[in-house]
Amino acid sequence: MPLLLCLVGAAPSMAAPLGEITAPAEFSVEGRTLDPFVDHHSFTVAPGVRLSFSASVSTPPSNWFWINDMDATLWAGGTPLAEAHAQDRPDFPFRARDVVLSPIVLGPGDYDFRIFGTPSAVIPGTRSSYEGLLRFSAIATPVPEPALAALWCAAIGIIGAWGRFPRRRGGNPTAG
Description:
By secondary structure, the protein is mostly beta strands. The protein starts with a helix and ends in a 12-residue tail after the last helix. It has helices spanning 2-8, 146-164, and strands spanning 19-21, 25-33, 37-45, 51-58, 65-67, 71-76, 79-85, 87-88, 97-106, 109-117, 119-121, 128-137. It contains two helices and twelve strands; from the N terminus they run αββββββββββββα. Residues 1-12 have low confidence and may be disordered. The protein is elongated.
């Protein structure tokens, strides 16, 4: 329910259509706002194409402004496919957050990647910001191990050889 409240009270979203994706690509995304937001990055994976999609979005380290509840969700046809929640970056002296969406394989279709959150600032009027990268990568085709390929070749050879030799029919081979 908190997500719904965040979305209902959110500022008008930034529309950033990425268009039709036909091959591996990367897109930079960014946002800077005072108000709660839902930013949409819509795209279409072309017919006959399968790609791996991943995303990483971060807030800069700051003691003046931040986005505590920043999250991201990948949608397809009104159904959430994957979501990621902000994690603190512990190696900075000031507040900084990362949202990382693990790779997911996408087939042809229409998708919408949404980033949402509620900015906060110490000084009123200071805009909070984020930036990130959306990646579309080729799907790796598994290559068989050499030992597995050799085992398959040996098995096929044994089956072929077994079929070439005549078999004895019936009877006891030791009886004369």
